[in-house]
Structures are given as C-alpha cells and as structure tokens.
Write a structure and sequence with these properties.
This protein has 149 residues and is an alpha+beta fold. The strands form two sheets. A three-stranded antiparallel sheet has the order 1-2-3, with no helix packed on it. The chain is globular. It folds into two domains: 44 residues; 103 residues, no CATH class. Helix 1 packs across helix 2 and helix 2 packs across helix 3. Helices cover 42% and strands 22% of the residues. The protein contains five helices and six strands; from the N terminus they run βββββααβααα. Its cofactor is Zn(2+). It holds the Pfam family Zn_ribbon_NrdR. This is Transcriptional repressor NrdR. One of its GO terms (molecular function) is DNA binding. It comes from Candidatus Termititenax persephonae.
Length: 149
C-alpha cells in the first residue's frame, strides 16, 4: 500500500482491529520510509458488478456514489460518518442480485430511502426529493405527511 505522505510502497501494520460488527478491518500502518502513520480499511467487495440505470445502461457498481448521495442528504445534520458507513453496509447486505450480479439503480435508491427514514427524517426527505424528482412543494408536503404517519 502506498504511503499517502511520501508515496513509498513499504509499510508495516502496527495495529489491526475489526469494526462494524466484524465486517471491516481497520489497520494502523507506519511507513517504513518516512515514519508517518496512516489508517486503512479492508472490507469484502460487494457481489454486484454492475448497476442497471433507468435508461438500461449498465455501469460498474460504485460504493462511493452511494456514499456521496448519503453525505449530501445528511449534510449539516447530526449524523456521523460512522453512521453513514453503517448505512452503506446495511444497503450492500440487502442488495438483491440477479444471475449476472447486476442490481437496478431503483433497488439501490429504495434501500437508501429505507435506511435514511430510520436514520434521519430530514435527510430522508432531502434524498427522496431528488430520487423521486419532486416537481412542486406539494410533493414535499405529501412525503412529509406520509413520513409522519
């Protein structure tokens, strides 16, 4: 692994521990060239190889896209980065795959909304407004009414 400080490829693992119910391994590393310490995380790659978009295009599954959408939804909300990571893990655990290890973007979006509804109602409405492409304030009001019920 390359050192983020000097770019050297030789480091040693100083400490390892599991986090998030054993699904992630956190490793503290020390660069053997410059002596700086940094952290790396290891997780099992999700089974999905491709995401089928609404227009039937296929693109490689990208965990970072889900993370960016979640971070945008929880911006300025009392939600930690750890909670966001946990939500992503929950989503990846629930992803329904077809025979070609593909999953639709609709299925991912619904799982994101399901997780956000439990996590933070404001973040949920923010995400829903983009995902469902709200065109008016009335659509916001209807979603909030549904959320309250």
């Amino acid at each position: 692994m390359k050192c983020p400080f000097c770019g050297a490829e030789h480091d040693k693992v100083v400490e390892s521990r599991t986090t998030n119910e054993g699904e992630v391994i956190r490793r503290r590393r020390e660069c053997e060239t410059c002596g700086e310490r940094f952290t790396s995380y290891e997780r099992v790659e999700p089974r999905a190889s491709f995401v089928i978009k609404k227009d039937n295009r296929r693109e490689p599954y990208d965990r970072e896209k889900i993370k960016k959408g979640l971070l945008r939804a929880v911006e300025k909300r009392p939600v930690s980065l750890e909670k966001v990571e946990q939500v992503i893990q929950n989503i990846e655990r629930k992803l329904p795959y077809n025979n070609e290890n593909e999953v639709s973007s609709d299925q991912i979006g619904l799982l994101v909304m399901e997780e956000l509804e439990k996590l933070d109602p404001v973040a949920y409405v923010r995400f829903a407004s983009v995902y469902r492409e709200f065109k008016s304030v009335n659509e916001f009001v209807e979603e909030i009414k549904t959320l309250r019920e």
